[in-house]
Design goal:
Helix content is 8%, strand content 37%. The chain is mainly beta and 152 residues long. The structure holds zinc ion. Zinc ion (ZN) binds next to loops.
Length: 152
């Protein structure tokens, strides 16, 4: 797998493969979509050609509400890549989606979509916190979902 950094920010760009390409194309439009089986309708992530439940090769990309909860998180420690060291301490969260808690996405909790990764205090994060997807354009054509805490 090739690691690609975004020009300017130095942050790692997603490694896009054929199965996952639609996820990133929808993200660039500000839509969080997850692959669903075209036969049994169950969601699956990461994207792949065949349904693990019914073995169908039919699939669609279903738009999600963008709501979920923090299922787990870590605070990465050195050694970090330079662009990440500049923003440390920061968080990496695992979000379970409202539509299916078995679908969990890795991302960052941020205060605003384009905020530095360290803007949200990583030591104040609580498991179970409701979050909502937002989208940050790291570079031209490279948009990633991030997460902000839902206001109570
Ligand atoms: Zn299926």
């Amino acid at each position: 797998m090739h690691e690609r950094t975004t020009e300017g920010s130095g942050l790692l760009a997603p490694a896009v493969d054929e199965d996952g390409a639609p996820f990133w194309e929808y993200a660039a439009r500000g839509e969080l979509r997850v692959q669903a089986c075209g036969a049994c309708d169950r969601l699956r992530f990461p994207p792949r050609p065949c349904c693990p439940h019914c073995r169908s090769f039919a699939s669609i990309w279903r738009r999600m509400s963008g709501r979920g909860r923090i299922w787990s998180f870590v605070v990465p420690h050195p050694p970090l890549l330079p662009a990440y060291a500049d923003q440390a301490p920061y968080n990496v969260i695992l979000v379970e989606l409202d539509e299916d808690p078995a679908i969990r996405l890795v991302g960052n909790l941020v205060t605003e979509p384009e905020a530095p990764l360290g803007a949200a205090d990583p030591y104040a994060i609580r498991i179970g916190t409701p979050v909502r997807a937002v989208f940050a354009e790291l570079a031209d054509g490279v948009t990633v979902p991030r997460w902000t805490a839902e206001r109570p």
